[in-house]
Amino acid sequence: MPKIYTTQARYMLHGGDYNPDQWLDRPDILADDIKLMKLAHTNTFSVGIFSWSALEPEEGVYTFEWLDDMFENIHRNGGRIIMATPSGARPAWLSQKYPEVLRVNAERVKQLHGGRHNHCFTSYVYREKTRKINRLLAERYGSHPALLMWHVSNEYGGECHCHQCQHAFRDWLKKKYNNDLKSLNDAWWTPFWSHTFNDWSQIESPSPIGENAVHGLSLDWRRFVTDQTISFFQNEIVPLKEITPNIPITTNFMADTHDLIPFQGLDYSKFAKHLDVISWDAYPAWHNDWESTADLAMKVGFINDLYRSLKQQPFLLMESTPSAVNWHNFNKAKRPGMHLLSSMQMIAHGSDSILYFQWRKSRGSSEKFHGAVVGHDNCSENRVFKEVAKVGQTLDELSEVVGTTRPANVAILYDWETHWALEDAQGFGMKTKRYPQTLHEHYRAFWERDIPVDVITKEQDFSPYRLLIVPMLYLASEETIARLKAFAANGGTLVMTYISGIVNESDLTYLGGWPQDLQEMFGMEPVETDTLYPGDKNRVRYQNRSYELKDYATVLKLDTADPVGFYEDDFYVDTPAVTCHSYKQGKTYYIGARLSSQFHRDFYETLIKELSIQPAFDVKHQPGVSVQVRQDEENDYIFIMNFTEKRQPVVLESAVKDMLTGETLTGEITLEKYEARIAVKTKK
Ligand code: GLA
Ligand code: ZN
Questions:
Q1: I need a labelling partner for 140 at 20 to 30 A (CA). Which of 194, 317, 439, 561 fits?
Q2: What is residue 211's predicted lDDT score, i.e. its pLDDT?
Q3: Which letter does DSSP use for residue 355 in this model?
Q4: Pocket residues for ligand 1 (CB within 6 Å)?
C-alpha cells in the first residue's frame, strides 16, 4: 500500500474558504486574519469562490491586486492557496448584458439575477466568460509557489431548461440513439399515454420530473444534466490544464444533510473520472433530535467511504463547520469535543484535510450566522476558535497519515441511476423505498465491527473484494448483471436483496421473469414482492432465531438454492425468505425481506467468519465506539473514536503508540465522552 499523494502537500491541510474580497476596505481585519491564521494552526485557504465581481468589476476591467496581496501574505506566512474559479456566482453586469447566462427553471421561467449556483450550463457566453477569467487566473497565479490546487466553481448542481439546453439535450439524445427516433421511442416505452415522438423537436426536458413523467425521458435527462455539467466543467479547466498541467483539480461534492445520503443532482461516479482529487462538503447535523450520535457517525462513515472509493485514493474535506451551520432547521452548536472527534472521523475514513466554510463570518447577508473560525468578535479567545486551534495542533501531528489508504475486503454497491429510477417508480412503498438508507443498514453491520468497507459503484472493479453486497439494485443492465455473475463465478461471495434486477438501463422491466443470469447465479427466482404498511408485522426465522421484518417481503421460487431463512406469517408463511447458493467458485445469498439490524449483525457475522474478514486492528468495545484504520507499507494508523455520551473502556489487541502524547497504549484504556485517540502501529 504505497501512499497516494493527491496534492503536493505532505501535511494535513487545515483552513478553508476565505473571502478577503468582502473586507477590502478593512485592512485592519485583513491584517488580523493573517495573525489569527497562525493562532488557529491553519495552513490552507480556498480563495476566489464567488469573487468574480471583485476580480472583474466591469466587463474587461480586472482588479486582481487584492488577490496578488493575498497570495503574498498567505505565502509569507507559510500557507497555501486552493484557488477557486469564480463561476459559482457572477457579477450583475454579466447577467444584464448577456441574459442568456441566466438559468431557466423546469416551469420555463427565466430566473432573475441574484443568488448563486444558477447559471445556464450550456450558455456559450457563460462558457466563454468563465474560460477567459480562468485563463487570466492561471496565467497570473499558475507559477505562484502558494498555489496548491484548483477548486473549480462551487458545488455544481441544478439544471437549466432554456432553449439552448433543450437543443443540447436533443443533440445528446440523437447521439445516444444514433439519430434513430424509433429506438428512443422503444427505450422510453412512449406508446404509454400517447407519448410517441415523431420529430426530435417535440422532445422537451421533463416538466415536471418525477413519478408521472416518461421515466426513460427523466432518466436520460438526469444523465444529460450530469454530462452537461461535466462538459461545463471541462470547458472551465481548459486553460487550467494548459497553463498549470501539474496543479491538481477538484470540485466540491455535496451530500444531502438529513440522512447524509449522496447528492442526487449529479452522478458523481461519472464526474469523479474527470477530477484529480475528490473533495466534498460535509455538514452532518450532530446532536440532532432524531438519531443517536453513533447512528449519525455510521452514516458519516458510509458517505466518506463512498466518496473515497470513487477514486480509491485519499480525498479532501473541502468544507465543514467549526460549530453550527445556518441552514438546518435548528442550528445547534457542536458540543465541546465534537469538533475534534468529527474531524478525526473524516481523517480516519481517508480525508487529508479539515477545511471549513468559512474562515471568517461575513457581516451581512444570508451567511452572517454560519459558523466560522473567526466570528464577529474577531477574537481567538472563544470556545469555537480554541477547538479549531486544537484540531490544527492535532493535524500537525498527523502528517505521516497523509496519502495512506484503507484496503477493504468488503464492498457495498451504491448506484446513482438506481436511486433516480427508484425515486421515479410508482410502486412499492412510495415513502419506504429508502434506497440509500437500506445501504446504511448493511454498512452498519461492518461499521459496528470496525471492518473496513469500500462503497463502490457499478463500473468499478469487483475483483479485489471477498464479499460484495448489492442491496436493492433496482436498475441493473445486462452488463452489470454479467459483471456480478463473473464476480461470483470467480469465487466472490455476493449478497443481493429484494427489489433488485427489476429494470434495465432504460428503466424498462425485464420480461419473462427475473433475468436468466440472476436466476442461474442465485438458484432461485423472486416471484412476488409484497409491500407492507408501516404497521404490518411479520418475522423471518433464520438459524433458530426470529427477526423482525418491515416494508418488503419477497416470495421466492427455489430451484437449486438452499433456503436459510423462512417467513413466520402471512400467505407465504414457512416459505423461504433468505437463500444461499453455491455458484461455480463462489456463493450467492438473496435476502428477500427488509430485515432488522439484528438480522444483519448475525447474518454478516457468519459470512465474516466464513470469509476470514478481520478488522484492520482489533479493539474490544461497546457499541458507539468506532475504530478505523489507515495504512501504508510500514504503519497502521488507528483512530479510536467514542461517539457516545459516556466514558468508554476499550481493550486493544496489542500495544500501540499514541501519536499525540507519544505514550504506549496497551490493554484496557479509557475514552472520555466524544474522545478520539490516534495511535500508530509499526508493521514488523
Ligand atoms: C455550501 C457552500 C458554501 C456555503 C456552505 C454553508 O457548502 O459551498 O459556500 O454556503 O454551504 O454551509
Ligand atoms: Zn440553459
A1: 317
A2: 59
A3: E
A4: 154-155, 281, 283, 319, 325, 357, 367, 370
